[in-house]
Amino acid sequence: MQKIVLTGARGALGTSLRGPLSKMCAQLVSTDIRPAPEGLFDNETYVQADLAKFDKIAPLLEGADMVVHFGAIVDEKPFEDLLGPNFIGAYNVWEAAHRHGVRRVVYASSIHAVGLAATNAGIDTTEPHHPDTFYGLAKCFAEDMARMYWEKRGIEAVCLRIMSCTPEPQNIRALGTWLSHRDLIQLVTRAIDTPTVGYTVVYGVSNNTRCPVDNTKAAFLGYRPVDNAEEWAATLLAKAGTPDPHDVALTRLGGPFAAVPLGESGMAAIAALTAKTTTPTG
């Protein structure tokens, strides 16, 4: 592969992907709204750019085979704050991909696109959109756009509904939703090297014993996660105390994002849940 473009390259997940992606192509172009990181890979170039500005993003995709689109505000915010980076930014990526003949977009979607679905419903990748926040709504918008650009313009897309991607599971919710960085890298690799994908949705989740979603219909990607949050189950459950069966943060797939008022930080709510889980009581 000649060229891959990575957006959101300065984010936590983008940072972990730069090295593996640099090994999959002759030229990696990394971009983010933040300044360049220290130490680029030999075949990597970095461009600081705002996703909401088409004239800054579009030239980066010239000659690209694929775009790995991880750039966005990764939290719930007022709609006006998300409009540029999360909505318009996604449009800019797909439209630029179309104009430059890019073959495929690998998109960092989110579980929050279906965040108000019940945790115990056992949903699969055909679940209708059920966003829990404006942030989740942006993911629905981009997924629908990805499908439209595939059906109308022939650009393939793999939408990764990422769940809880951290070095280790942080709370009892993550016993089902955790995605390790190692499995994230495998997932993105399979989204890139699978010969044909059309329009595909797949959940970004590790091989957790308590996984609440079903990836069977995306099995053709060859994604076979190896890590399992159950290794941390005894410790996390012991510290969590007795859960409230009516707590929306536990009974909906979006977790704390499903419980917060629209426009208010879901990440802050996750931090509070994590603190409650990891701090002994009594």
How many separate helices? 10
Which structural class do you get from the secondary structure elements?
A: alpha/beta
> Order of SSEs, N→C?
EHEEHEHEHEEHEHEHHHH
CATH architecture: 3-Layer(aba) Sandwich
Low-pLDDT windows of residues: none
Written description of the protein model:
The protein is globular and about 55 Å long. It has ten helices and nine strands. The mean pLDDT is 96. The chain has a single domain, classed as NAD(P)-binding Rossmann-like Domain (Rossmann fold, 3-Layer(aba) Sandwich), CATH 3.40.50.720. By secondary structure, it is an alpha/beta fold. The chain has helices spanning 12-22, 54-57, 79-99, 134-153, 174-177, 181-193, 233-240, 248-251, 256-259, 266-278; strands at 3-7, 27-32, 44-48, 66-69, 104-110, 156-162, 164-165, 178-179, 199-204. Helix 1 links the parallel strand 1 and strand 2. It is 36% helix and 16% strand. The strands form two sheets. The protein has a seven-stranded parallel β-sheet, sandwiched between helices. Strands 7-8 form a two-stranded parallel sheet.
Topology:
Elements: E1 3-7, H1 12-22, E2 27-32, E3 44-48, H2 54-57, E4 66-69, H3 79-99, E5 104-110, H4 134-153, E6 156-162, E7 164-165, H5 174-177, E8 178-179, H6 181-193, E9 199-204, H7 233-240, H8 248-251, H9 256-259, H10 266-278
Parallel strand pairs: 1-2, 1-4, 2-3, 4-5, 5-6, 6-9, 7-8
Helix pairs in contact: 1-6, 3-4
Family: Belongs to the NAD(P)-dependent epimerase/dehydratase family.
Domain NAD-dependent epimerase/dehydratase: 4-163
Keywords: NAD, Oxidoreductase
